[in-house]
Amino acid sequence: MISGLVMEFTKLAHATVARVTGVLMVLGISLICSSMLLAVHTDDPQLAAKLGPLIDPGGWVGYLTVAIQVTGAAGFVGYGVVLSWLFSREFAEGTVTGLFAIPVSRRTIAAAKFIVYLVWGLVTAIALLLALIVLGLISGLGPIPADAVPAMGRQFGLSVFSILIAAPAAWAATLGRSVLAGIGTTIGILVASQVSVIAGTGGWFPFAAPALWAINTDIAVTPVQLSLVLPVVALGVVLTLRSWHLLQLDR
Q: Which sequence ranges are marked TM in the entry (predicted)?
């Protein structure tokens, strides 16, 4: 396992996809949210209505609520892109044949990919929260009040959930042997999540429940509904590991 982790960490450290996606997620989400603060003081009622939480409740809580909404979509896609790349790069670069010649099992390599992805994801989630805090202070929101701390926890929690629920992208990228298969699956899950929310069943859809919980809307998400994320993630990981164990070169 150690040799597999070293190999995958080395690949990720030199990967342009991981660096660019990480920067876009951290700076992109935080800059979008902080730039919206500039439009808060407006006399235009239509613009004020579009700003939503930045106007009411406003302040740090409103700012973080908007950040959570953006993270729910952009963050999930970003994590799905990197995970898809991790599990498809061997096929795209033609290095998959070499995996059959090394003393590390393919299942171990796949497990190492998941671990490396998890570490990268957690670092990105922490960096995003810190960037949001710094830009919020720079934008003049003032000292962080006590009622904003739970919102910060939900922001980080949503990032962690997004890291986990992107797991099916790894299986799709493996089966399709293409990064596009993983990204397409990620986008499809995002669309299905939106449909489930509109239909009023988002709380029971494991891919939508974390965002509804984090936004803290009138739609209550119970611990039971939130716990449904775990079997879905576990299934995605198990199916991916099995696919790598049964991997063949003749297809």
A: 20-40, 60-87, 114-138, 158-175, 187-207, 219-241
Q: Which residues contact 53 (CB under 8 A, 6 or more apart)?
A: 61, 62, 63, 65, 66, 69
pTM of the model: 0.89
243 HSE (CA, 13 A, CB side): 20
**CB distance 107 to 244 below 8 Å:** yes
Describe the chain by its helix, strand, coil percentages, rounded to 5. 80, 0, 20
* Residue at 251 is within a domain: no
pLDDT digits (tens, 9 = 90+) for 216-237: 755 678 889 999 999 999 999 9
Q: Cα separation of 95 and 111, whole Å?
A: 18
68 found inside a domain? yes
Domain count within the chain? 1
